Amino acid sequence: MTPSSPLVKVMRTERDALGDMKIPMDALYGIHTARAMNNFAVSGRPVNRNLIHALVLVKKTAAQVNGEQTRLSAHRVSAIVNACDELLAGRHLDMFTVDAMQGGAGTSTHMNVNEVIANLAIVQLGGQPGQYELVHPLDDVNCCQSTNDVYPTALRIAAIRLLRPLCDTMSSLQNALQQKEIEYADLLKLGRTQLMDALPMMAGQGFGAYAKAIGRDRWRLYKAEERLREIPIGGTAIGTGMNAPRAYSYRMVEKLADETGLGLCRSDHPMDPIQNMDVFVEVSGLLKSAAVNLLKISSDFRLLASGPFGGIGEYLLPPVQAGSSIMPGKVNPVMAEMAGLTAMRVMANDAAITMAAASGQLELNAFLPLIAESLLESLHILTNAVQLFEERCVRGLIVQEERCSANLHSSAVMASALVAELGYDEAASIASAAIAQGRTPEDIAEDRGQLTRARIDQLCHPYTVTKPGIPGQEEGTHHGNE
Pick the catalytic residue: 324, 410, 416, 429? Predict the structure, then answer.
């Protein structure tokens, strides 16, 4: 009996300026993509799907405009548009095979898109992938375009589309913190500076400070969209617009604005957004600012929830999963940790974006793929992290009143409320005695007969010590030496 022959994959031959190459017959990509797959086997991570989606949208719009202006025949336009619609619906995404870490200023990603669209259009017309006389990836799909104007245009569209949900999640987090501000408006706790006991405060005041910081982030990110709306489509290779009629450029911006609803506008100097990447640095910097606040808040939550018995233990964070494979009953602040490490990644991405943007030379930035990958990742992960942190940590957080009270009354911070009446030195003496004897400053002051208990209670009242003013003095009065 003769053993069966191994299955042989059917291949087609494609040719470019560098020579011939075998491509799987059923592959929708072509020779440019295949070369890039070999050359850039770096991370194993494909190009961000949000960027691919935006690139396909630009291609669809370009086909329609070129059809309107009679540069493409109606049957080619129809086939290209139908191919783009399939891709926009989420089909054939496995054909976008180029690694995210690539040289060439995005040309490989752009050619991957051109080839997949062309081959899908060819199939639409009854042909086989590779029959580029039916629909050509460059002459037809890429008509009046260059990587250098298409890629940054698509990146701006993708970034805005990710920025808007991030603004919404930041707004929701701000609201959740404001709800905690209201919920714990009357709960007295210990305030700390440099991790040491400082002054009394209301727990709600702390949440209010967090909400203000997140509110600034929300507003900054909302305004950042304005910078991203200016697109260089029609500028072609270096921004001069060669091979793209002016009517094409204006119509492309008009149709993309209508299609996306993003308020896109044409750059009045396309050479600028093709070579200068500072807009992405600015947006990334604002993401970094938000990440800084997220890391600070999540770190505070972890610290205040530490213990629960051997640490501060003033916050009780929602338990979401078991914390140890060896320590039964241990529950860790994993949602706060997740928020923190995501913030760190956003900061690292910002450093990459900064270096990549600064490394552009002359009329193009060769490192735009790194900018795109880093920026879109930051937008995506920050949105998800903020949403999960709010839903699974902030909203279920409980401030433990008894623990707050115990920590406050075992400290000597109320001595600060006696400074205006007794002077700093005497208040410091009372604080030292309270610490040494394990008693409260109020009791020490009463024992020394310096103040009546009624006056002490008035000076140390929770609402007195947690608002502006000098304890024991009405606004506008002065009890010092005249």
Answer: 324
